[in-house]
Write a structure and sequence with these properties.
Elements: H1 33-37, H2 43-59, H3 87-96
Pfam families: Pkinase
Domain Protein kinase: 1-103
GO molecular function, one term: ATP binding
Length: 103
Amino acid sequence: SPEIKLCDLGHACHARDADTDENFLGTEGYAAPEVVRGPFWSFAADLWAVGVVMYALLANRLPFPRGTYSWMQSVDMSSRTWWQVSVEAKLLLVSLLEVSIGG
């Protein structure tokens, strides 16, 4: 029978409005740019992490090299890996991996 596995997206916790943390928490490579630039956790940052996981499942690698700011560029879907991926899936990935300017 199929197994379902759950994982958190780098930084899962309950926080009160008064809680603050000025240190980076999360998993490098999965954290949204606004999380890396400053302590901005949001629903959009969670969607970014979902996009990273989706990309990794389809391409068998992370979309952006760790330790770089290459996420400032668009995600590369030009390799042969992407030829069999539907247009709808690619559009979803592009929307999930969109940099949030406002944080």
